[in-house]
Amino acid sequence: MSAHDDKLQQDTLAIRAGYQRTHENEHSEALFLTSSYLFENAEMAAKHFSNEVEGNVYSRYTNPTVRAFEERLAAMEEGEQAVATASGMAATLSVVMALLQSGDHIICSQDVFGSTRVMLNNYIIKFGVEVTYVALTDLSAWQQAIQPNTKMLFCETPSNPMSEIADLEALSAISKQAGALFVVDNCFCTPVLQKPLNWGADIVVHSATKYLDGQGRCLGGAVVGSHELMNKVVGFLRAAGPSMSPFNAWIFLKGLETLRIRMQAHSANAAELASWLNAHPMVTKVFYAGLEDHPGHQLAKKQQSDFGGVVSFCVEGGRTEAWRVLDSTKVISLTANLGDTKTTIVHPATTTHGRLSDEDRLQAGITDNLIRVAVGLEDIIDIKNDLKIGLELI
Ligand SMILES: *Cc1c(COP(=O)(O)O)cnc(C)c1O
Predict the structure, then answer these.
(1) Ligand 1 centroid to 166 CA: how many Å?
(2) Which range of residues forms the domain containing residue 305?
(3) By CB count within 10 A, which of 34, 135, 310, 365 is most buried?
């Protein structure tokens, strides 16, 4: 079956796209734990190496389980091709290394994932690539940041942890006018809630570590886009090596099968928690695009099919009070990970965003009384009760 069999519905593609059954007639997808592959004879080996014949040579290049994950994800994102990587950061690194060169300029939303910022600031600029940060929702700032050498616009929407929403169509128009590529980190929504390529993005990057796995088991990432762009990304990956492990690909492949029902359940739980927090006397502000008074609510309704699982909120007080809420939890896991069946809680100012300067952190809205909850799939009554303990101690 072809990954792009457009006669099939999305839910069917998530379960059946991309897999070629082997001669063993297995029903579930096989896991190919092999680093290399045999050739029939010396001539065939030579032909594989010179690309005269297509086929598996070495698992840094191709692996059937990894390919199945790639094809299924491409079908779900409605992109021509997906390329799997060792982690979400390896996905972003591959895009930047494959598609930018010394002298180029990238514009990035200022509240992207912390390591994305560290990678750009500490490493990518060493190779002569200029970086400008702008506020995600300030379209005129994006427009004004365009330079003759601007080759890429990069954003993450909804943002972490403030749930700000980027206008994908508008950013795509700005990037097209500048002749730049528009890259969207779609980790928080997954293709189930948002398909950035359909809103004009050229490339989607993913941390598969989060919702695609959904159970916190392994690291992975992916890049999705046209064959032309993905050929370049594949070239970098093959040469540099941050490719996905077949075992991890098998986990993610199976994760995609349940992604839609999980994302809907995460979103339903998060919506309930957000409105409960909104009404709590010790909570001063809730950041969740599903709330009607959130500035990105209408935009999120337009480009997403639901609002996702991440809810942030400010408590009365400062760091002491926020830490009290974290330390009083008995069910929720205190960890920076997200996109898991288990609800997680974190204090962004002192962990995920602790490496930012005080100025950058405050500019991004990460105050000391801010808490981020990535809502899992437990009964939401237990999650509310768990947060209630600390909120009542404030
Ligand atoms: C976690 C995350 C990443 C990085 O992914 P890894 O798999 O940890 O390398 C990138 N972007 C976003 C939005 C993330 O949440």
Answers:
(1) 18
(2) 260-391
(3) 310
